[in-house]
Each structure stands twice: as structure tokens, then as C-alpha cells.
Amino acid sequence: MANKGPAYGMSRDVQSKIEKKYDEELEDRLVEWIVAQCGSAVGRPDRGRLGFQVWLKNGIVLSQLVNSLYPDGSKPVKIPEAPPTMVFKQMEQIAQFLKAAEDYGVVKTDMFQTVDLFEAKDMAAVQRTLVALGSLAVTKNDGHY
């Protein structure tokens, strides 16, 4: 993957607009929901967009979240013993979460792309997906959202 320098011109303007959509209050509510749903073993992120991104980046917390919405014995995402350290394994774990979330009922228009989270391109899209997942969990009476 090529190294990318700072964005200029229109690219910077577009990225700036995307970053403005990120909601720090929503981040707090999502963290509280994830911890309530998965247990305190998932830990807590540092405050802010970067801390939230780092917390979710390897896909383990997301996988535990979606698995917590299913009854025992029918977990859709396999979680490795040790958190993945290789980039492609982490991205694969995120992709498994996205597939499980879609199977759960989250519509494609509410889904983020793997790079939105992995490269922090659009963390607001990640928030949208988690809100949609939480709303479905409440509707199905599967979660603590």
C-alpha cells in the first residue's frame, strides 16, 4: 500500500466534510452499549475518533458485539484465540462482522466499508452501522441498546 501524504484542495475539503459528521456524543453512547452488550472484558477506547477507531480496528470487539446478539451455539463470526496482528487478517475480521450484520438485518445503505474503519476514512459511517445494528437488536429484543 502506498504511503499517502496530506490531502490538498478538493480532497481535503471532502475529507473535512466527512470528519464533521462524526458525533462524539454518539460515540459515548455506542461505547456504553457495546460494553453493556459484550461485558467489560472488551475494555474502553480512548476518547475521540482515533481512540474509537483503534479500539474497533482489529475487528474483535465488533465480532464479539454481533455474536452477543445471537443465542449460544449459533454465533456467526469466528473469533480467533489471539487478536489478529496482520493487516489482511484484521480486515477479514471486519468483513466477517459486516457480513454477519447484514445477515442480522442491517441494510446495505447503512453499512460502512472495511476501509472506512481500518483507515479511518469515514468513522461516521461506522457509527451509522452500529446505530442501525443496535436499533435492530432492540426491535428483535436481542440487546441492551
UniProtKB/TrEMBL annotation:
By its UniProt entry, which InterPro entries does this protein fall under? Calponin-like (IPR050606), CH_dom (IPR001715), CH_dom_sf (IPR036872), SM22_calponin (IPR003096)
Give the Pfam families listed for this entry.
Answer: CH
Q: Which residues form the Calponin-homology (CH) domain?
A: 24-137
Which SMART domains does this one have?
Answer: CH
Q: Residues of the signal sequence?
A: none
Positions in coiled-coil regions: none
Could you tell me which SUPFAM superfamilies the record lists for this protein? Answer: Calponin-homology domain, CH-domain
The name this protein goes by in its record: TAGL protein
Instruction: Name the gene behind this protein.
Output: Tagln
